Amino acid sequence: MMSRILNTEVVVPVIERLVKKACCELNDNVMEAFRSACEQEESVLGKETIQILIENGEYAKREQMACCHDTGAAVVIMEIGQNVAWEGKPLKEQVNEGVRQGYEKGNLRKSMVADPLERVNTNDNTPAILHTEIVEGDTVTITVMPKGGGSENMGAFKTLLPGQGIQGVKDFVLEVVKRVGGNPCPPYIIGIGVGGTMDKCAVMAKKALIRPIGKRNAKPLYAELEKEILDAVNNTGIGPLGMGGRITALDVHIDYYPCHITALPVAVNFQCNAARQATETI
């Protein structure tokens, strides 16, 4: 198959659109999850809290305003077909230009500092946190997932001993959930990476957040573990926005990868109730 040649400039307007859409429009999957959670919530205050989140999401979309003031770090995930060949300026440069335009034209808060110790704001929310993956085909699928500090700061990683197995994974996730309490702004989604190396595991946990709420892992072992962890989290009593109640998590998504014989890596990444993402394919 001949290569499909794309100029990297094509990603700029796409990412600009995705930034603004993600920040202002919670997708139908998230809004339906809110409505379902509101029906299931047993606490009066919890129900009121979820109803406010529903109204906030509807208002943000209608008025094209950010659904949360923390418009996050711009996580950009690109699935690039192996038959795509690039020309033009460096791809990373164009990704950042798309992010820059999206945050500036969308009047969105700029939250990135150029150096983690010197703490000087870049004033355009670049650079993006860019993840690329080579896949089959000749298309490019781009997902923008703005990641706010409240949820991102609560993530955790641990290398368990292999003998700790499934119970060890469950125990670690519940330990993290109880420790962070309401800080990740529940009801949230929990992304869990199991296996790989430390870096691979963390990326899997992040990417797991993209999966639609209600869609289980294709492997029955992990699908069952997702349901078990979800039930356990929703029995902690943390509740919506940490105010107490039944619905602490909207869903739990696990991705896994082969790992070394000596290790059982586990990463936990939270996505707050402002579960923002938007995707487009070129």
What proportion of the residues form beta strands (DSSP E)?
Answer: 15-25%
Question: From N to C, what is the helix and strand string?
Answer: EHHHEEHEEHEHEHHEEE
Report the uncertain regions: none
What profile does the largest beta sheet have? Answer: 4 strands, mixed
* CATH architecture title of the largest domain: 2-Layer Sandwich
- CATH class categorisation of the largest domain: Alpha Beta
How many E strands?
A: 10
What's the arrangement of strands in the largest beta sheet? 4-2-5-10
Net shape? globular
Organism: Pelosinus propionicus DSM 13327
Protein name: Fumarase, class I alpha subunit
Family: Belongs to the class-I fumarase family.
Domain Fe-S hydro-lyase tartrate dehydratase alpha-type catalytic: 15-279
Provide keyphrases for this structure.
282 residues, alpha/beta, 60s Ribosomal Protein L30, Chain: A, 2 domains, four-stranded mixed β-sheet, 38% helix, globular, 4Fe-4S, Fumarase, class I alpha subunit, 4 iron, 4 sulfur cluster binding, iron
